[in-house]
Amino acid sequence: MSARRVKPSLYISVDIEADGPIPGPYSMLSFGAAVAGVQNADGFTAADPERQTFYRELRPISEEFVPEALAVSGLDRERLRVEGTEPADALGEFTAWVREVGADAGAQPVMCGYPAPYDWTFLYWYLIRFTGSSPFGHSGCLDMKTLYATKAGVPLRAVAKGTMPRQLLSRRRHTHHALDDAVEQAELLANLMAWNGSSPAASQ
Prior knowledge:
- This protein has 204 residues and is of the alpha/beta class.
- It has helices spanning 67-73, 77-83, 87-105, 116-131, 144-152, 178-194, 200-203; strands at 9-18, 28-40, 43-46, 53-57, 108-113, 141-143.
- Strand 5, helix 4 (116-131) and strand 6 form a beta-alpha-beta unit.
- Mean pLDDT is 93; it is low at 200-204.
């Protein structure tokens, strides 16, 4: 198929905060999303990551939690028991939002994260468990850590933000607030997409 006939991809940066290592026994407590940009046959066009965003805090789904994981987010499970959005409602609203921004862009939504596997595991599980489907399909996920490793020509396990050229990193703080971090990571994706992949040492 000609590259110009392939539907563009709309990259949506997603960050989640959870109280344990896997969904089901543990809970996703919040998630944030920010539209990062569109890629088509002509290349990637970055979006203003603050323009189209989504954020929800969720009611926990179990009694189990890992104190160290909960401490990272700074979220209060007892408050969320009362004030958190029901997961089915939050994930339904998120699905509608993803489909709307995808339709507006004329592009297929792709979730992206840094690193994506943890966030994708929780997000996909919650989408299937509470809505029965995923607006990203079963594989519409891009891992920024892998993208960097491939462009830089370095082993994946050697990658950390501290090893990246400084110009690739967002100037925003990583706060462990899911929306803040989704916006930060959207800027990282835009920078990675524009980067020519020169060696990290030469770029610092």
